Amino acid sequence: xxxxxxxxxxxxxxxxxxxxxxxxxxxxxxxxxxxxxxxxxxxxxxxxxxxxxxxxxxxxxxxxxxxxxxxxxxxxxxxxxxxxxxxxxxxxxxxxxxxxxxxxxxxxxxxxxxxxxxxxxxxxxxxxxxxxxxxxxxxxxxxxxxxxxxxxxxxxxxxxxxxxxxxxxxxxxxxxxxxxxxxxxxxxxxxxxxxxxxxxxxxxxxxxxxxxxxxxxxxxxxxxxxxxxxxxxxxxxxx
Length: 239
Known about the structure:
This is Excinuclease ABC subunit C. The protein is mainly alpha-helical.
């Protein structure tokens, strides 16, 4: 269970996945903040904490189920001479989901300037439990891309679990600061969505038995992130 501890690749995967999970949780924090703002001020911290706790529970439950499904390697049917197993189905469907969600989010950010949906902008306050119910539904939606990304990037369940727990714990502590930072640097969110396109493509390829070494993916992500950090530094100096 803990054999991954001696693997440098597993530690790289853990660091990369944790950082990506934190960035992917930005949308969750933004929508959570919008919903919580409809509560009285004294109830908001409690609702925010419970909402993120629900997010962690749902992510871990989905992670356990998807990790189990990826072990189903017996062919269920054959398409064009290619055997498709339960694992392949999970990877292909998950990859398509990531691609669709990423492209839609990129389109939303460009065309709609990142505004929240009208359904989340209603004025007035709501009851505490109705807000929690809405948060639970949103958590399910946002947990899917997070968990599918974890399954696509790491080979060990322990690595995925640690990354998810650390990321949600980080969000609990720095929810407000994270939202403000990404609002000030929207290109960082765009970079994360681009990473999702890359991971989704890799998942589909893996499901079709075309395996892309994860080291290439990690290097591409790290290099892109380093370039973006340099760009952010240049923009700050010019400002």
